[in-house]
Amino acid sequence: MREFDLIARIRARVRDGEGVVLGIGDDAAILTIDPGEQWVVSTDTLVSGVHFPLDTRPADVGYKALAVNLSDLAAMGAKPRFATLALSLPSVDSGFVEPLLEALIALGEAHGISLVGGDTTRGPLSLTITAIGSVPAGSALRRDCAQAGDAVYVSGALGDAAAALALRGVAIGADPAEKLARERLAQRLARPTPRVALGQALRGIAHACIDVSDGLTADLSHICVASGLAAVIDPLLLPASRALSTLVPDPDRRLQLQLGGDDYELCFTIAPEHESQLTSVASDQHLPLTRIGTLGPGSGVHLLGADGRLTLCTRGGYQHFA
Amino acid sequence: MREFDLIARIRARVRDGEGVVLGIGDDAAILTIDPGEQWVVSTDTLVSGVHFPLDTRPADVGYKALAVNLSDLAAMGAKPRFATLALSLPSVDSGFVEPLLEALIALGEAHGISLVGGDTTRGPLSLTITAIGSVPAGSALRRDCAQAGDAVYVSGALGDAAAALALRGVAIGADPAEKLARERLAQRLARPTPRVALGQALRGIAHACIDVSDGLTADLSHICVASGLAAVIDPLLLPASRALSTLVPDPDRRLQLQLGGDDYELCFTIAPEHESQLTSVASDQHLPLTRIGTLGPGSGVHLLGADGRLTLCTRGGYQHFA
Predict the structure, then answer these.
(1) How much is the pTM?
(2) Are A124 and A190 members of one domain?
């Protein structure tokens, strides 16, 4: 398959959504949007061997490359609209490319996103996606708008993806419950759910928001730095899935909850007087929203100990080039 | 240097332009644009060893990665507005990264483009840029709007970049004129000029437009396919620079003019009654615009021979995965 065949194949799969004046196939795409809206643009790259193991299933690669960008849009409270895909492949093996595209496009369609262009090149396997979303003007959820006194919340459960990575290569026992738990963790790593609907539901309620990609304390520290505040987190409140609780004992579990990346849950801050509104949001979203701490004056992320003492969290999450 | 240091360094360099509500540093950028305008989005990747030789100067890598995207916006007639950069590096060597960023940001500022976000990852050297431009609604230059009877034009000169590549490793003689010509060709390869102002000047005049990145006949064939037309090109009319004419004799020169990619000139089509307007455009742009052929019913790109016979052009330009 040659380059233009590959592009033609991608083009044939894609249905142009609302707002796409001209999609894949020209020098660039032409897009239009309603006035009164702002655009939210995110770019994320997945590199083989860095962001996913070399033996990752191609469908999971395609899914996750888009999912991490949708997660960034979710963390801004944006509605996904358009995406471009820069796909670098050592060779065009249709047994690899087809399921990759299938999964990527299916996830995009599920979220109303149109693939409008991109680039295909020969090179080491990597995918860079730029995703564009929209928000009513002025309503995006930023990192720098948290306020002292805000409660800190996190969606879903933490640490699952990190635990799945840590358990790779560890033999699975005969216990069916253990097997099921292992599968659940593996699924969380391979197919994280971007919290797109939650992000939009938090507009006008939450003050600041970020997605947990590098680890809770690392990502929350970005909100603290951007907003000029300190966070105090109670480690005992960090939500663990049943699968994580079944498979991973403390202290590993505690570390995975605090430091594990790749879960793509949302961490957000909210004024105490608005916390009551979260009950209906959680119910609508079928997703637990857990209060894990508070924000106040100062700097840094601090962990509340059983003895009431605070420990400044210095171990960061995942960093490239570290 | 760690990942966040690198991001902080990029952020410190960048001045947010008009329309940037929130630039680098959050999960995504927030952008705004006037109603009545459409957005034009292009994505291009440069991979080390594929799109540029491994020994390319870092400043040239940074320059060219943005230039090729600006060229795509130019080919749509768009005004550059915003860009995101996904930068993959084997390691963060500031002697490499600094000049790369410097050149990229300087080119962006020269064209009024704001770098609003992106991603930094560890991996083989590659840069993916998504550039966003704007056009008055309905005025973008597309590939599929050429008309039978249109004249085909090309800006500047062709074949320089291909000749520079072909001459790499060939010893330079003592003749100062030859030395100067070699430097001019090398500069065209390393620092192509995206025809941004020309693209905007062609709005409302040209019917279809494309940038010459893969080679004239390959790129013109995209216009023919998209518009359902045939092109007849006179090879003797293809514009050659003095440097190319000095250094490369026929038949190599003829092949480089027809097939050479990487020049980033614009190839466009225009109704004969509008050709007279091109004189002032060429004069304003200080850029020759050369009529090289015509469009008519049929398909394919045909070369006019000295004997008046037509030859269907089947040798394409550069293709990945070929």
Answers:
(1) 0.90
(2) no
